[in-house]
Design a protein that fits this description.
Radius of gyration: 22 Å
Number of strands: 2
Helix content: over 70%
Structural class: mainly alpha
Strand order of the largest sheet: 1-2
Shape: globular
Largest sheet: 2 strands, antiparallel
Order of helices and strands: EEHHHHHHHHHHHH
Number of domains: 1
Distance between the termini: 21 Å
Number of helices: 12
Length: 329
């Protein structure tokens, strides 16, 4: 049967499932898994009392900080959607609405996977089948642009953080910074060499097998690549401001200089710590306490800020994206 898979136990075929059903099964596994882990996190969250205590004592004026965070959420998502639209425009024209749906579906699909690698599955749903291999490559390019910005802003901030807080950088931290600096140079070199790499692939004896993945890279000019990195930078500034606003909501006061070195350092550590998206809340809270805690003694408020920014920037889009993912074909 065309488009089917057969399972074998020994030499006996047992089950034959149409390939289309596999895609449906994968979609629902990702959706159910994401909701299951979200429920688990809600049931095991042990800071409800601290959150209620902060809420009762919070001045009403602090609510404007939360409003600011929520207003910047669609800006954050629209910037990522615009970046995705520009990337896939080289293989398929999609409008901003479908790019937005793809981003939300990707967040939902990536919620269950390490470092959100399942994100590409959700994004693929809104492209023609013949362009989905290219989408896999373009999703890597998209992630690379954000990582370039994370390292570019985070490494200097990290060095300044450790030197300005009065402590010397330990050997392990120094090696971490050096490795990330090397990664930055490598990422930048590879990123801007993508068109040339793609053309070189045409000479490979395996070209016919890989061209569906690599041809899309040859269509980008250096100006295209710079434009995409610029959008990644603006998005980075947006979610950094969101975090600053969330800290303000919980009464964590940072000077401009402290925020300038602490927030990029926090995001650098969070980004380059392997984790599942659903466990990001623990990673984000621990790093927020470590980094922001160097400038404030309100550790409970800092931890809650890390939790709440995760809920707004990941859980809310995941819930909306799961609906879109369920409706996708």
């Amino acid at each position: 049967m065309a488009g089917s898979r057969t399972f074998h136990f020994g030499k006996c075929p047992v089950l034959r499932i149409p390939f289309a059903n596999w895609k449906v099964l994968l979609k629902w596994v990702l959706i159910i898994g994401a909701y299951s882990f979200l429920v688990y996190k809600l049931l095991t969250f042990d800071q409800y009392a601290a959150f209620l205590s902060h809420w009762k004592q919070m001045p009403q004026s602090h609510l404007w900080w939360l409003v600011g965070v929520l207003l910047l959420l669609p800006v954050n998502l629209l910037l990522e959607s615009t970046k995705w639209k520009l990337l896939v425009s080289k293989v398929e024209e999609i409008d901003l609405k479908n790019a937005f749906k793809a981003i939300l579906s990707g967040i939902s699909a990536g919620f269950l996977t390490p470092n959100r690698v399942g994100d590409v599955v959700g994004r693929m749903m809104y492209l023609l089948p013949e362009n989905r291999k290219a989408a896999f490559t373009l999703s890597i390019v998209s992630a690379m642009t954000q990582n370039i910005i994370m390292i570019l802003c985070g490494v200097p901030a990290c060095v300044l953080f450790f030197t300005s807080t009065g402590g010397k950088m330990e050997a392990t931290t120094s090696r971490y910074v050096i490795v990330l600096s090397v990664c930055l140079l490598s990422f930048v070199f590879i990123y801007f060499a993508f068109p040339r790499i793609s053309r070189l692939m045409e000479k490979s004896r395996h070209y016919e097998k890989i061209k569906a993945f690599t041809d899309c890279l040859s269509y980008f000019s250096k100006m295209d690549l710079l434009q995409i990195v610029f959008i990644a930078l603006i998005r980075y500034l947006v979610f950094s401001v969101q975090f600053f606003f969330m800290l303000g909501f919980f009464g964590i006061e940072l000077t401009g200089w402290q925020a300038l070195i602490a927030i990029p350092t926090n995001y650098l550590l969070v980004t380059f710590t392997p984790s599942f998206a659903f466990s990001d809340v623990a990673v984000r809270s621990s790093y927020a306490v470590f980094v922001i805690g160097a400038f404030s003694v309100q550790l409970a408020g800092i931890a809650l800020a890390g939790v709440c920014i995760w809920v707004i920037n990941f859980v809310i889009p995941m819930l909306v994206g799961s609906v879109m993912l369920a409706k996708s074909k």
